[in-house]
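Re: [ENG-882] Designed sequences occasionally contain unexpected residues at chain ends

Forwarding the minimal case from QA. Structure tokens:
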């Protein structure tokens, strides 16, 4: 037995080694001249059978593998013989190193197809699987493989319905349909975050699901009994003078990240090592579960670095398919002697733990955007020198690995001779993406450097010899630039706009260069970069500050197509550019140009014609603002057919203006969906509201709390009589419907609502949330939610029996008379609303048989004696008594 175990172990080692051999590149050796080898082609299809018009994946290749840097076999084709006898050739294709690959094929008729792989003769380039380099691999053709195609479509995996109850991350990767409700907010594109992806079921009420104290906040109150020191009506830190209380905010995979109060004022010199006494205090980044409000982690990143942005990119190699996410900080490295910037470093941190993953040193400045797989791209253009570059964050890692392994020929297990653009080496050896602890040179990240036409105008405010002015990038296809922008120095009397292609193969080609005549002298012009564009509508917008009007231009040609718009923006919008931009003064979505700003009015224009469609006034009912009857507002973001508005101010007056609103309006009609007065969620520098996973996260500056707005979970209770109920009697079903969102579990809420927080209807929501979370007076007209009752009766029938509405305590009751005898299972269900997810509860009751009604008792029959003798005797007795009484009277009279 011991000998058998030893032999089995030896055989297993041999088998494992045999399997591993094809994966290892052996030193290159030349085969003898004329050496050939037979090949064995393979063919298959998945699925098989398949329906007409449905895809099937044809597997094609040979049984022999290749080795790096040879990527695979070349020139393979598939001959397809259709049911009608006609033939079609698919390919040629190149396999991967396994010797196999796949071809998508969509059959167009029902019947049996026959498939054959054709392998052309070729040499193996590098020794692999026991075959020496330069061996001739003979041509071969596979057997015919039948593919059955049916008229009926093949059934695939059924989709998973969208969530109908409170949900959280992570989302099971099988739930592909949930893509439509799960969104991220990465902050890569800076101010273009006003247009988050539409995969958010954006909140249609002001329902809060949790709050979290960020800093000291709210009213101060009395401080001195002798009134020497008075702080009447003063609140804690409601201004945000460059502090950024809620800055760097990101939503990634259901987690909210933000920077805590910074350790130094942003106006100070941001050196690598703080030079200011007492400012070495720890600066934390906080990670909070967006769905629950619970802290995931809280810690400093690196050298007290500030969170900048995040990215998610798709890594697709032979060894790994999947998305990877990183949190990024950017840090200037200074020459401490001269206080000049030496370089800019980017550091990647693991979002799950906050651990440092890797560093890219010397990242170039320029216009930042994202690539098709989520990689970070930076475009740099130097108009006066006539060149332009594109830098790619993932290429830094690719090329580092490529150069590392390509420079080591002849080492066992290591490839050699890789070409300069061969990214497959990095893909093969990097495997899993994160290169832990490595420091990379950003210089390896340049994907291309091309020439551009000389003479393109630049911002005259620029003083460097190589100055450009990239205003915006449209879909990674077009760069739009000009000689002026919203923050520019000297205003150009004659604006010039130009566009350069960055499409693959057309990089640097001038598309157009146009001069635009100012509508009036000395006005301030805003162009793309501060004003919006839409690739889908082929429009970019130019705005004129002093006139408060807008013009539309074609992206493809640069020609003006409409404008000016009607001057519907209020006069205070002349301050929008300095005060509000680029925090959402104008946005294009759904075929409309939306404008807002200091004037407190939202306007919608047709983006194709410039025609005004509707207006919405962000009115100040109680005249709390000192300079306007409307609250100044940016368009914070537009998503899911809705526009979200939050007032903001750089440094509010003291005492702070009351009733600052947050609102949601319909992007099509401008109608108000909800508005809550007194929930001030916007600040100039302190961080704007963001949305992800259909939940809005924001900073409330009235009390310095981070709040989350979205749908919350509920809980229903129901009770019925505990004893059997006689048939025909009514029963009372009663219970509660409560809001059990995470915020209701806070101690401060539980102490005020020991029986739970009632779930109220959507119409009552705004005032109810102010009462629950901000301690406003309890609303007198709040109403509960509707509860529907259903039963399964003794006959097994399921049926609805009625509906009732709860009150502001969450309590409901329902009077019902069962219509048959026996046991009932009773369901009390709240079907959900715009503010709440649905819930239900179950109970039971029993209805007994009715008691039999007793028959009426008949009087017994009377006998003859009862009828005649008894009455006669009674009459005789009466007569004797009467006679006796008369005799007694007579005797009394005869006495002397």
């Amino acid at each position: 037995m011991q000998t058998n175990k030893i032999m089995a172990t030896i055989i297993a080692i041999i088998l494992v080694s045999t399997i591993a051999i094809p994966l290892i590149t052996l030193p290159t050796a030349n085969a003898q001249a004329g050496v050939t080898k037979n090949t064995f082609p393979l063919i298959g299809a998945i699925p098989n059978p398949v329906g007409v018009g449905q895809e099937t994946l044809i597997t094609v290749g040979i049984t022999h593998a290749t080795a790096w840097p040879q990527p695979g076999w070349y020139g393979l084709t598939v001959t397809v013989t259709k049911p009608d006898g006609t033939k079609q050739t698919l390919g040629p294709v190149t396999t991967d190193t396994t010797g196999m690959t796949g071809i998508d094929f969509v059959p167009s008729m029902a019947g049996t197809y026959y498939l054959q792989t054709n392998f052309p003769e070729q040499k193996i380039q590098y020794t692999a699987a026991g075959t020496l380099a330069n061996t001739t691999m003979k041509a071969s053709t596979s057997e015919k493989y039948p593919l059955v195609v049916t008229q009926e479509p093949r059934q695939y995996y059924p989709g998973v319905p969208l969530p109908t109850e409170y949900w959280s991350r992570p989302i099971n990767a099988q739930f592909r349909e949930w893509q439509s409700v799960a969104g991220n907010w990465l902050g890569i594109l800076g101010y273009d975050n006003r247009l988050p992806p539409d995969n958010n079921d954006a909140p249609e009420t002001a329902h809060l699901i949790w709050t979290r104290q960020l800093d000291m906040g709210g009213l101060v109150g009395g401080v001195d009994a002798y009134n020497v020191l008075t702080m009447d009506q003063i609140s804690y830190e409601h201004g945000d003078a460059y502090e950024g209380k809620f800055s760097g905010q990101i939503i990634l995979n259901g987690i909210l990240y933000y920077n805590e109060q910074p350790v130094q004022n942003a106006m100070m010199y941001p050196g690598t090592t703080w030079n200011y006494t007492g400012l070495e205090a720890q600066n934390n980044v906080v990670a909070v579960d967006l769905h629950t409000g619970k802290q995931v982690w809280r810690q400093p990143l690196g050298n007290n670095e500030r969170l900048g942005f995040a990215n998610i990119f798709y890594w697709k190699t032979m060894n790994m398919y999947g998305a990877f996410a990183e949190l990024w900080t950017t840090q200037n490295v200074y020459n401490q002697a001269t206080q000049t910037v030496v370089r800019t470093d980017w550091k990647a941190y693991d979002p799950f733990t906050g651990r440092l993953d890797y560093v890219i040193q010397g990242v170039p400045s320029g216009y930042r955007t994202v690539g098709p797989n989520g990689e970070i791209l930076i475009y740099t253009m130097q108009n006066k020198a006539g060149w332009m570059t594109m830098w790619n964050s993932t290429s830094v890692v690719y090329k580092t690995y490529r150069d590392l392994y390509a420079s080591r020929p002849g080492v066992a297990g290591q490839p050699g001779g890789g070409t300069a653009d061969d990214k497959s080496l990095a893909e093969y050896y990097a495997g899993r993406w994160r290169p832990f602890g490595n420091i990379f040179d950003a210089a390896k990240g340049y994907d291309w450097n091309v020439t551009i036409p000389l003479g393109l105008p630049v911002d005259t405010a620029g003083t460097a010899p190589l100055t450009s002015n990239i205003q915006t990038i449209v879909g990674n296809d077009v760069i739009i630039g000009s000689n002026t922008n919203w923050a520019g120095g000297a205003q150009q009397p004659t604006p010039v706009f130009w566009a350069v292609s960055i499409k693959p193969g057309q990089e640097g080609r001038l598309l157009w260069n146009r001069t635009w005549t100012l509508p009036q002298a000395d006005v301030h012009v805003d162009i793309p970069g501060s004003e919006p564009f839409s690739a889908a509508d082929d429009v970019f917008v130019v705005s004129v500050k002093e006139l408060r009007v807008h013009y539309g231009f074609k992206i493809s040609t640069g020609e003006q197509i409409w404008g000016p718009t009607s001057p519907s923006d209020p006069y205070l919008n002349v301050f929008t550019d300095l005060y509000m931009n680029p925090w959402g003064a104008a946005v294009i979505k759904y075929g409309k140009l939306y404008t807002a700003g200091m004037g407190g009015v939202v306007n919608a224009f047709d983006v194709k014609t410039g025609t005004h469609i509707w207006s919405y006034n962000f009115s100040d009912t109680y005249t709390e603002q000192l300079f306007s009857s409307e609250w100044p507002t940016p368009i914070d973001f537009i998503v899911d057919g809705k526009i979200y508005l939050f007032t903001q101010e750089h440094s509010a007056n003291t005492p702070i203006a009351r009733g600052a609103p947050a609102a949601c309006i319909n992007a099509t009609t401008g109608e108000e969906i909800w508005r809550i007065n007194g929930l001030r969620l916007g600040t100039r520098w302190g961080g704007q509201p963001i949305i992800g996973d259909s939940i809005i996260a924001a900073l409330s500056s009235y009390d310095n709390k981070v709040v989350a707005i979205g749908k919350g979970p509920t809980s229903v209770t129901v009770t019925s009589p505990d004893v059997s109920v006689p048939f025909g009697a009514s029963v009372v079903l009663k219970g509660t419907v409560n809001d059990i969102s995470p915020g209701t579990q806070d101690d401060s809420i539980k102490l005020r609502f020991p029986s739970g927080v009632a779930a109220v209807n959507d119409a009552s929501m705004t005032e109810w949330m102010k009462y629950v979370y901000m301690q406003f007076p309890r609303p007198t007209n709040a109403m509960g939610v509707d509860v529907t009752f259903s039963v399964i009766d003794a006959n097994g029938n399921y049926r609805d029996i009625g509906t009732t509405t709860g009150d502001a305590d969450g309590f409901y009751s329902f009077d019902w008379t069962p219509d048959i005898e026996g046991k009932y299972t009773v369901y009390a269900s709240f079907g959900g609303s715009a503010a709440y997810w649905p819930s239900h509860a179950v109970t039971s009751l029993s209805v007994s048989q009715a008691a039999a009604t007793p028959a009426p008792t008949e009087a017994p029959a009377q006998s003859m004696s009862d009828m005649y003798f008894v009455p006669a005797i009674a009459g005789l007795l009466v007569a004797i008594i009467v006679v006796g009484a008369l005799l007694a009277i007579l005797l009394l009279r005869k006495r002397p």
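QA comment: On inspection the terminal residues look reasonable. The first helix runs from residue 2 to 20. Proposing we downgrade this to a documentation issue.
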